[in-house]
Amino acid sequence: MRIAVLGASGRTGGTLVGQALERGHEVVALVRTPAKVTVPAPRQVEIRQADVTAPQGFPDLTDVDVAVSAIGIGKGDGPGALVAGARRLAAANVRTVWLGALGSGVSRRSGGMIYAGVMRMFVGSELAEKAEADDIALKAGATVFHAPDVTDGPLSSTRRIVPLAELRRPLLPPRISRATLAALLLDEAETGKHGNGIVVPLG
């Protein structure tokens, strides 16, 4: 497949690119600053400058099979970056797998009471924007991943994707390794199994 990765220069995006190449896919890396991207297999990676806050210059994606978003709200980003990213992919008219956060919007209580408190404490000011971006992606037909806290660690052999409506609320704050999250995003990009809706990736 030909997979576009939005936010390919970030930690999760970089993991996505590496795993996609290992699976034999071609990758279109969408990044704001191309000079920050180093790729292991340049023949299989096309780098396109993509500033989500500049819609007139956002690249055409009609030549890709699916887009996977790994953007977040980074240091130095002003408010609106996530919403802008969701709008750019919605306008691109490409099948999309969108990365959101468990504990935002409709899943605000789904991670359990402790997790909800942690999210309010550390992500509080960003929760509304995350929910708005998710809503834009959903209305455009995307599969939206509400990922729990992301950690370093190995790829889980028991990884799975659960529809939000079927998630059992955990007692302790849930976590997932970055490698496992990237693998599950790619699984969905390849299969489109869960279609339009909110799902939760689990290790």
TrEMBL record:
Residues 7-188 form the NAD(P)-binding domain. It comes from the Bacteria. InterPro entries: NAD(P)-bd_dom, NAD(P)-bd_dom_sf, Polyketide_Oxido-like. Signal peptide: none annotated. Transmembrane segments: none annotated. Gene3D superfamilies: NAD(P)-binding Rossmann-like Domain. This is NAD(P)-dependent dehydrogenase (Short-subunit alcohol dehydrogenase family). It comes from Streptomyces demainii.
